[in-house]
Amino acid sequence: MSRLSLALITLCAASGFAADNPLPAATPVPRVQAIPMPHHITSFQLDGRELTACHYDPVDRRVFWHPIRASRDISITRMGHPHDPLTHSHHNSVWISHADVDGVNFWGDYGKDLGRIVNVEVSREGYTDTDEFASMQMVNHWIRDEDKSVMLIETRRTEVRPEGGAKSWFLIVDLEYTTPKGKTTTFKPSGFGLIGVRMAKTIGVIDGGGRILNSEGQINEKAMFRLPARWCDYAGRITNAAVGFAGITLMNHPTNPQNPTPFHIRDDGWMLPCLNLETPIEVSEAKKLRLRYALWVHDGIASQEDSEAKWKQFTELPLADLVLKKK
Q1: Which of 6, 103, 152, 262 could pair covalently with 274 via S-S, beta carbons 3.0-4.6 A apart?
Q2: What CA–CA distance (Å, rounded) separates 236 from 255?
Q3: 246 lies in which domain range?
C-alpha cells in the first residue's frame, strides 16, 4: 500500500468515515443546525435533538423562543404566568418587547395603544449550520396597531452555541434598531423591556422553591429587585430525579447602553435586564441602537463562579456581523 493510500485511509477514519464510504464526496453533517419548519418556526438542534425553536408567526404579537431545553426533554421556560395566564399571556417563554415606545405598548396583549412586532423577512443568507453553532437572521417591524405605521425596524440574529453538549449552551441574541426614513422613535423609560424570560413553574421561588442569584451575590427578589447586575441566574427543579435541576443565566453585554443594568426580577418566575429603566433612548437612521444578550442554559444549580465565568466567556466572543453577504 502506498503512503498516499494509507494517508487517505487515516484521514477518512479520523473524519468518522469508513474506508468503503459509498459517497466519498459527501460532507459531514453539522452537529448544530437551524432548521426551518412549518408554521413559521425554526428549530435549533444539536445532533438531531431540539434545544429551542424560534416562533415568528405573523398572527402572534411578537417573536419568541420556546421551548428551552438542557439535557432533559422538559422546557426550563413556559408560556404564560402560572397564576395569571390571561392578562400575562404576553409572557412568551423568552421574548423581546418594550412597554413604552413613544407611548405605544409592545409589551402586553391587552389594553390601549398596543403595538405588534411582526416578522417581515427571514434572510436566506442568514442561516448557518456548523459543529460549533447554528444561527438565523431576520427582520422584524415594530408596528403601531392604531394606524399600522412602522415605528422601528429590527434586525435580529439568533445563535445557539453548545459549550458542553445539551448540558451547557448559549442562546445569543443580537439586535439592531433603526427607523423608517426621516423618523425618530424613542424607547421611553420603563421596567418592562427588552428581553424577558418566564421560567417553568417548578423553578419559580414561590411555586417550586427555586433560587435567583445575581452577579453581585444577592439572592431572590427582595434582595435584588431592580438593582444593577451583569447577569442573573434562575434555577430550580424540573424533575424529581436526584439530579433533576436546571436553570438559565440571563446576561447583559457590556456594549449595551447600561452595564451593569437594573434587573427586573420576580420570585414568581421571571427575569429581565432593563434596557432603560430611567433614561429615554432615541433611535433614528443616523442613530441606530445595537444590543446583545445571552442566555446560558445549564443543568444543575450554577454557582456564582460558574455564571461569572460564562458571562466573561460571552463577553469575549466577537460581536456578530449583521450585514449579510450573499452565499
Answers
A1: 262
A2: 30
A3: 70-113+145-316
